[in-house]
Amino acid sequence: NAGVTQTPKFQVLKTGQSMTLQCAQDMNHEYMSWYRQDPGMGLRLIHYSVGAGITDQGEVPNGYNVSRSTTEDFPLRLLSAAPSQTSVYFCASSQDGYNEQFFGPGTRLTVL
Amino acid sequence: AQTVTQSQPEMSVQEAETVTLSCTYDTSESDYYLFWYKQPPSRQMILVIRQEAYKQQNATENRFSVNFQKAAKSFSLKISDSQLGDAAMYFCAYRSAGTYKYIFGTGTRLKVLA
User: Tell me, what's the pLDDT at A40?
Assistant: First the structure.
């Protein structure tokens, strides 16, 4: 099992550009989430999904879109990147809401 | 809205000694889960221990244990016999039983001194 994979590992964007951060898991987990981690602020939930076709907003959803067409994949889209979106992004999955969340290795995004 | 507070930005402990990391939370709910996650320099998030609010018994995982005080809304992590590999950021997290929304604290950086 590869677990949770994220691509790319690093990305530099210019303000206004769009891009998609990829997240995939091979554990057949129903629950998946996207977080951003900023210095001094811990992890903040952006969007989450409790199954294919079901997504919901987290604490900081503005500027991000998600979709969940398959159990395995949960991409995060930045429609028009802003410097405030410079952060490290983590994807996570779990079998259910209580058991362990498995995290991907993260994507470091810089928006100039 | 629920909040999670970790008031110690940084802690140090001598190797083989015991250290306690603090976490307090605010909620009006009675059913929820609490977690401690470890983030070493590799950036990988690792679950250390979890606690169900309805269980009075404190969770224990080898050298890691918690002191869960529900009335005081406190959830501290005790690390016994500290090892160099314990050096990391530690995050406390809360999740309501009714949702999948996790709320993380700002973290405590633990340094282990040889």
Answer: 81
